[in-house]
Specification:
By secondary structure, the chain is of the alpha+beta class. The chain has one domain (6-190). Helix content is 27%, strand content 27%. Strands 1, 2, 3, 4, 5 and 6 form a six-stranded mixed sheet that branches. A hairpin with a 7-residue loop joins strand 3 and strand 4. Helix 1 packs across helix 4 (126-140). It starts with 5 loop residues before the first helix and ends in a 27-residue tail after the last strand.
């Protein structure tokens, strides 16, 4: 039972999802079927969906950890840890998994928030397209997420925004906030008791001269 690393898990989920879509681009017809609704077909329709598919198959979309975000490479998907803390509602004194405090494995539940950043040029629809692709991947691959230790995850999203302090002027972003419960485990072997430590308490010589000027 490894210690779960949510950022690494989410990176793998999205990266694998994109790789699958590249080998099965027909899935994009399902993702963007909305453009073929009677109310949309006059302005969009299947030609627009084919345009998205061509763009997706011809465009590299790297998935990176936030610390390696390169503003010169867009479109791009970044993942960063927004917050992580032990779930107080599931905390207890001496958390152990197994036969009480005699168990060899410790456990604790953490509530983790991850931000998935979708970065693209403001001059195109790429941000919107990537958002719905990632949205689909996160829903479709929930079982995969559970296998990697991300339990009961839900997510919310923001509209477009521009962070002038971090990104270039022509880069706009949309963020997906993923909220997930993570169960972490560790070796719960007890620390050494004092009885197990050999301490030399022998007294050293002490100067008892009463004439010493204090």
């Amino acid at each position: 039972m490894p210690h779960v690393m949510p950022q690494v898990a989410l990176h793998r989920i999205i990266q694998e999802g994109i790789a699958i879509l590249r080998t099965k681009p027909q899935i994009l017809d399902n993702i963007f079927q909305y453009y073929n609704c009677p109310e949309m077909v006059d302005d969009y329709g299947q030609p627009y969906v084919e345009k998205i598919k061509t763009w997706f198959l011809q465009t590299k979309i790297p998935v990176v950890q936030a610390w390696s975000l390169n503003t010169q490479i867009v479109p791009q998907i970044s993942i960063r840890l927004a917050a992580e803390q032990e779930d107080e509602g599931k905390a207890a004194i001496g958390d152990h998994w197994g036969m009480g405090e005699d168990a060899e494995v410790g456990t604790a539940a953490f509530m983790t928030h991850l931000d998935v950043g979708i970065h693209a040029s403001r001059n195109g629809d790429e941000t919107l397209w990537i958002y719905y692709i990632v949205n689909y991947i996160l829903f479709k691959r929930k079982r995969r997420a559970e296998a990697l230790g991300l339990q009961l995850y839900t997510f919310s999203a923001t509209d477009y925004n521009r962070d002038a302090q971090k990104l270039a002027d022509n880069i706009f972003s949309r963020y997906i906030r993923v909220r997930t419960l993570v169960q972490n485990f560790w070796d719960a072997e007890d620390y050494l008791e004092f009885d197990d430590v050999d301490v030399d308490l022998s007294a050293s010589s002490v100067n008892t001269d009463t004439d010493v000027d204090i």
